[in-house]
Every structure is written in C-alpha cells, then in structure tokens.
C-alpha cells in the first residue's frame, strides 16, 4: 500500500508492506490511516513529536505507521532539498553490500537457476529450516563460493541440531545465521549463542525499540526492518541503542517496493549488514 502526503508543492510517498505474520492487512492499514490527521506537515524540529503522536493512535499497525513515517520523511527531505543520509551527515560510501535471497527449494535445478540469477550480487542470503538444508547449501557450493548468509526463520526447534548445523555451515563459507530457533525459546537461544562459531542475528525476536535491550545476551546482533519498527525514526533509535549494547546490526526488508527500500537505504551507512 502506497500513501501520499502533499503540501506546499511537495509530495511525500510512503509504503506499508504487510506480510501475514505481522497481523496487518489492507483493511487494518486503511482503518489506521483514516485516523491520521496531519493538520500541517512538520518542519524538522517537530517531526519527532508528530510521529510520536501517530504512534499513540493504535497499539499495533506497525506497517501503516511506517507508511506515514516514510511519507513524512520523504516530504520533508524534498522540501529541504536533501536526502536523509545527507541530513544525518552519513557517508553513503560506507553502505554495506546487499545480498540476493534464495528461498527454500526442493528441486536442485531451481536452486541452480537462482544462483545464476544472483550473478551480479556478491553475497547470497539463503533460507533454510526445511528437511533438505544441507542439500541446498551443497548445491549452491557446486556453482559458487560467494559468501552466504543463512536465514532459518525460526525453523530449527532443537538446540543440538541447530548447533551441529551451524558448525557445519561454518565450514561452508557462511558468514552468519539469522533467527535459527523460535523466538520463544530464549534459554535455548542463549545456549546456542554461547557455543556458535558464527554470529547469530535475531529477526522475529526484535520488532521495536524495547526488544533491542532484550536481545543483548541472546543474539550477537539484530535485524531491523522499517515495517516492523514503524519507520525511519525508530529504526535510527534502535541502531544507536544496539551500538551502545555492542550488538551488530542488519538492515532488512519485507516485500517492499523501491519506495520503502530507498527509505531504509538512507540508514544503511550505519549498519554492518544490508539485506535490501
């Protein structure tokens, strides 16, 4: 869903992307957006207060809130004549290389085709958590030795199995493992972190700012996504807190268009890993 904010001759664009696990839909997002009443578009000092007010309109609706946040940032940046990485004094040359995602596939030839499609990319992100995890990695390694980042999406339910898989992945030029176990299994996640030869990044476990502090000691790093955390303003806060706590930071995405991806990219010089 795309939204527009128009005033003073400038149009700001925002986006809400709503995968099912977020609990949002086109209907719930529309209902939330109908409550948003911007009497006037804010200047830079007032932006944070306006977004805080938007956040109080409902307890959830993270993606819809992100749409408003992105649109307001876009509108204000256009009015000021600068991109947000410039307003934040960030160096775009420090942006990490993004990755190409390969989903869980049962057919080897499909995996091979995805690897061929990823030729322009330097890093692969590979979804695991099925019953053919090793086969997927081995098939990729038949064609390329590019660095791989693995995303398990909470797919491994046994900590011993998870550790054995991570130890094996460490021999296959894998850089990190994202959310290997269910977020509710906190004690097992801590046990795994203490023994893992690879960095473990929390994704589903880390939604908004309060979750960052909870992630310290459980994961080596966190994955921040605008659709989870309500937009650019809170993402920036999460990055700063993560750094204070010694956590690595990945900047990820859902199924957004270039509208939300370009918004996330403004923050990318601050992070260690980009998956945009």
Describe the structure.
The protein has 276 residues and is of the alpha/beta class. The protein folds into 2 domains: 2-82, Enolase-like, domain 1 (2-Layer Sandwich); 90-274, TIM Barrel (Alpha-Beta Barrel). It is 42% helix and 16% strand. It is built from 12 helices and 10 strands. It has helices at residues 26-33, 44-55, 62-80, 84-87, 108-117, 133-143, 159-169, 186-195, 209-215, 226-229, 232-244, 258-265; strands at 2-7, 10-15, 100-102, 124-127, 148-151, 174-178, 200-202, 221-225, 248-252, 273-274. The strands form 2 sheets. It has an 8-stranded parallel beta sheet with strand order 3-4-5-6-7-8-9-10. A two-stranded antiparallel ribbon has the order 1-2. Helix 1 (26-33) crosses helix 3 (62-80), helix 2 (44-55) packs antiparallel against helix 3 (62-80) and helix 5 packs across helix 6 (133-143). The longest helix is centred in the first third of the chain and has 19 residues, at 62-80. It is globular, with a radius of gyration of 19 Å. The relative contact order is 0.14. The model has no long low-confidence stretch (mean pLDDT 96).
Condensed summary:
The protein is of the alpha/beta class and 276 residues long. The chain has 12 helices and 10 strands.
Low-pLDDT residue intervals, each spanning 5 or more residues: none
Can you summarize the main beta sheet? 8 strands, parallel
What is the CATH topology descriptor of the largest domain?
TIM Barrel
CATH class of the largest domain: Alpha Beta
Oligomer: single chain
Strand content: 15-25%
Radius of gyration: 19 Å
The helical percent reads 40-55%
Supply the helix-strand structural class: alpha/beta
> What is the helix/strand order?
EEHHHHEHEHEHEHEHEHHEHE
Whole-Å distance between the termini? 18 Å
Sheet with the most strands: spatial strand order: 3-4-5-6-7-8-9-10
> In the CATH hierarchy, what is the architecture of the largest domain at level 2?
Alpha-Beta Barrel
